[in-house]
Amino acid sequence: TQSLPISSEDWEQRARAILPDGPFDYICGGSGAEETLAANRTAFQRWAIVPRMLRDVSDRTLSITLFDQHLDTPILLAPIGMQGIAHPEGELATARAAAAHGVPFIVSTVSTYSLEQIAETMGDAPRWFQLYWSNDREVSASMVRRAEAAGYGAIVLTVDTIMLGWKRRDFRNGYSPLKEGKGLANYINDPVFCSRLPVVNEESAVQEILRNIYHPALSWEDIRFLRQQTRLPILLKGILHPEDAKLAVEHGVDGLIVSNHGGRQLDGAISSLDALPPIVEAVGGRIPLLLDSGIRTGADIIKALALGANAVLIGRPFLYGLAVAGEKGVARVIDTLISELDVSLALSGSKSVSDLNRGILTRL
Ligand code: FMN
């Protein structure tokens, strides 16, 4: 048997060899000309770490506190929908690997298994629920109630998907994972959603989801409604403009995920790392800031934290791990990233991820 890969590039190559073109391109690709996808990587390369020496870093910690919860590392697994296209065990395998590492798993609205089934595999391990807004807001409210009941610790509302990004690869392949039925579980197990269907079957569910899942009318008014539905922390995922960050704080949002959806939504959008510093300034420490899109190495995490992120999410790398080796693959991706982060922290001359600051970075 081939040994498991170490780098995210190797994982990607192995996944490409296993998966058909449709699912692989859907996972790896970005929108439009994939300029934002590329920018997410070059942004990290434009910052360099200027490490400090002779600082006795024998006693180190990667741990952080987020919403009063202790976490062993500043890493979370990003919400990735329809994981059944990568591996038959999908989110169940991911959930087990995340739970074993104490890494919070953010479960997508369009997961292949229901949020309750996923929660059941996780015991007390930390998990958050990612909400795709529904035009029928009672459906959104119902999903939030279910997430609360199933022990999810936060609601992540994704705000950059009011329409589907323009994905040339999927057009070429004629591929649509939702239509393959891999993202229905949370809908067909939702009493409010099902009460809207003429008949409860896969086809009518897909039609109803397609009517509901794109919501160009989304506005701050909906945030007010969501705020009234739950006492769980609410994070907005997909904020890139500092003015939106300020508005989020004014609307009682508890945290932000600075993200361009891994370059899958607005092509031409700013990389999330470049968007971070102005948002850090606008928010002024009032709420935690997380970042995703392009995190691949321990050094990337050091750079994001030094620029003011409190934690980061990883996306595609763990999904490649899932495709190649199921739970073991996800576990290995998490393990190697944590080890790399620890080595990078020590060699940067820091004892704690929460001490990192701009003083150890230079802009190239
Ligand atoms: N973000 C969501 O908020 N909900 C989703 O259901 C969702 N599905 C995704 C499916 C795939 C295949 C990929 C690659 C990303 C998806 N995302 C989704 C975006 C991720 O949460 C995350 O923002 C992105 O993958 C981070 O970038 P990275 O892949 O470069 O690490």
- Total number of helical segments? 15
Beta fraction = 5-15%
Percent of residues in helices comes to 40-55%
How far apart are the first and last residues' alpha carbons, in Å? 42 Å
Sheet bearing the most strands, described?
8 strands, parallel
The helix-strand sequence is HHHEEEEHEHEHEHHHHHEHEHEHEHE
Runs with pLDDT <50, length 5+? none
The hetero molecules present are:
flavin mononucleotide
Query: Class by helix and strand content?
Result: alpha/beta
Tally the beta strands. 12
Strand line-up in the sheet with most strands:
4-11-10-9-8-7-6-5
Q: What radius of gyration results from the CA coordinates?
A: 20 Å
- General shape: globular
The average pLDDT value, as a whole number, equals 97
Provide structural commentary.
This protein is of the alpha/beta class and 364 residues long. It is 44% helix and 12% strand. The protein has an eight-stranded parallel β-sheet with strand order 4-11-10-9-8-7-6-5. It has a two-stranded antiparallel ribbon with strand order 1-12. A two-stranded antiparallel sheet has the order 2-3. Helix 1 packs antiparallel against helix 15 and helix 14 packs across helix 15. Flavin mononucleotide (FMN) binds next to loops.
